[in-house]
Every structure is written in C-alpha cells, then in structure tokens.
C-alpha cells in the first residue's frame, strides 16, 4: 500500500467512504468553500515561489489560480471571490511581520514503512533565525469551531514524521494556519508519539490491503456521500 494522509484520514472516518473514493473512484462534488480553498492554496504557492511581494502581486497570483468549479451563479462566484481577496489582504499584512525563511513549498516526502510506502505533501516549511524548522499546514474552513490546537493535529504529526524520515529534519514547531480567521495555532513538536503513529499507519495500510471496508455510520451526517451512499444513515440530511 501507498498511504497518504488523505487516504489515512478517509479510512479512519469511514472505511466504506475509502472504498467509494479510492477503490471505486467516486468523487465528492466541489463546493464553493472547497473551490476557494484550492484557489487560495495555489495562489499562496505561486506567490511565494515567485519570491513574494505586495498585495497586488498576491492578488495577481490569486486571479491566475482561481478554480471556477462550484458556483451556482455569477453573484455567488463574486461573493466567494471577494472572501478570498479579504483573506489574502489579511495574509499579506501578517507576512510583513515574518522573520523566518521559507525552506519549502508543497514539499513532497516519500519513505518506506515496513512493506508499505508513506507519501505526503507539506504546504510550507519555514526555518527560524535560530535554525529551528517549522511545519505549516494551511486550513481554509470558515467555521472557527473546526480550529484545534496544533499538537492535536494528526495531519501535522503525520507531516512532521515524514520530514524526519525523508529529510532527516527534526521539526521544532508545528503550526496550523487558519487562513479565513488569520489565526495561527502553533506548538512545540513532541516526537515521543512517532512509534504509535507508525503503528497506526501500518495497521491502517494492512486493513486497506485486506479490503476491510466495513462502514462506520457515525460519520454519515458529515460525509459528502451521505445522500447517495447505499450505506448512509443520513440520506435526508
């Protein structure tokens, strides 16, 4: 098995959802929020790869990166596009205070773990003036209730492990940057849980390889397949 964080997350949410997405190739239709998220990620990558700049430079990257895939009408598209511009205005203001150097953007890692392969893509890696490495993951959801402390982020721990295994870097800091609110949740990285994380990755990969796709209906109300999945317990939601 080759396991990415997305595959790990989806299987842990519901093995049947994993089967629909990765065994049967079904896709969840994009939403305005997910379309904006794609646009923002691409814009920030292009902006920083070009060396940064001012707000107009970032907005130009945003216009070129716009993903126009999930809007019911022109007015809806305009309002979501405006939301993105406001997010980027706040982002540029915060970037003026940055004292780190960007070490990597959309940095891919891949390493063997027992009989499986682990792969991932880190949004951003910064190096602090004292040499400390910071792993940063961008989040674009608009509901502040989704915000969680960085140390509880399975995704960031997955990425930090990948950085250690693939690049021989020991991250000192892990950060979730919530773009919509501008909030950054950071914590010191604790590698003591890496053995447990490796076991979780291996066990999940083994279950996928064995096609253990028993549905977990507790996730149905939050699933993008809830109206069409034959196993759904939330078809009317």
Unreliable stretches covering 5 or more consecutive residues: none
Report the helical percentage: 40-55%
> In the CATH classification, which architecture of the largest domain applies?
Alpha-Beta Complex
Radius of gyration: 19 Å
Helix and strand element order: EHHHHHEEEHEEH
Q: Into how many domains do the coordinates divide?
A: 2
CATH class of the largest domain: Alpha Beta
The CATH topology of the largest domain is: Lambda Exonuclease, Chain A
- Figure out the total of helices: 7
**Which of globular, elongated, flat, extended, rod-shaped describes the shape?**
globular
Strand portion: 15-25%
Annotation, overall tally of beta strands: 6
Largest sheet: 6 strands, mixed
Concise synopsis of the structure shown:
Helices cover 42% and strands 19% of the residues.
Ordered list of secondary-structure elements with their pairings:
Elements: E1 2-3, H1 5-13, H2 15-23, H3 32-49, H4 55-65, H5 74-95, E2 101-113, E3 116-127, E4 133-139, H6 154-167, E5 173-178, E6 183-188, H7 194-209
Parallel strand pairs: 1-3, 4-5
Antiparallel strand pairs: 2-3, 3-4, 5-6
Describe this structure in words.
The protein has helices at residues 5-13, 15-23, 32-49, 55-65, 74-95, 154-167, 194-209; strands at 2-3, 101-113, 116-127, 133-139, 173-178, 183-188. The protein starts with a strand and ends in a 28-residue tail after the last helix. The protein is built from 7 helices and 6 strands, in the order E-H-H-H-H-H-E-E-E-H-E-E-H. It is globular. Strands 1, 2, 3, 4, 5 and 6 form a 6-stranded mixed sheet that branches. The mean pLDDT is 93. 42% of the residues lie in helices and 19% in strands. The chain is α/β, with parallel strands linked by helices and 237 residues long.
